[in-house]
From TrEMBL:
Protein name: 4-hydroxybenzoyl-CoA thioesterase
UniProt keyword annotations, A-Z: Hydrolase
Matching InterPro entries: 4-hydroxybenzoyl-CoA_TE, HotDog_dom_sf, Thioestr_dom, Tol-Pal_acyl-CoA_thioesterase, YbgC/YbaW
Pfam families for this protein: 4HBT (PF03061)
Organism: Nitrosococcus oceani C-27
Length: 135
């Protein structure tokens, strides 16, 4: 996968009393970007759940905060697939203001789960084919 970029506007509700993006909201921004990446490949998470009984969930993450985002900023969440396993995907994600100002960076591991058992299961071949471009 090449880099996927998703724009985010910082709303008042995303900030603390000082007008700075509340730290946990960066995780929400990154989650939205991964969801939109999957959607751009033609997969809706509600359909995967309802028709195939699959969930994608965060298993682990490492996140570094470098600079503050502020109310009304236009940010971009950059997502890049680092690694794919049989049942997991690892992403490098960054949130930037403009092209140069890096606000935070993370490595996020996502696992495909059976929605009934919450146990890992293989990522469907069709999704893997879209990720790798082997359609």
């Amino acid at each position: 996968m090449n880099e996927f970029v998703w724009p985010v506007r910082v709303y008042y509700e995303d900030t603390d009393s000082g007008g700075v993006v509340y730290y946990a909201n960066y995780l929400k921004f990154m989650e939205r970007a991964r969801t939109e990446w999957l959607r751009s490949l033609g997969f809706e998470q509600d359909v995967l759940l309802n028709e195939q009984g699959l969930l994608f969930v965060v298993r682990s993450l490492q996140l570094d905060y470098l600079r503050p985002g502020r109310f009304n900023d236009w940010l971009k969440v950059h997502s890049h697939l680092l690694e794919r396993g049989r049942a997991s995907l690892a992403f490098a994600q960054t949130v930037r203001r403009g092209e140069q100002t890096l606000l935070c960076q993370a490595e996020v591991k996502v696992v495909c789960l059976n929605a009934q058992t919450f146990r890992p299961c293989p990522i469907p071949k069709l999704i893997l084919a879209e990720i790798t471009g082997d359609c």
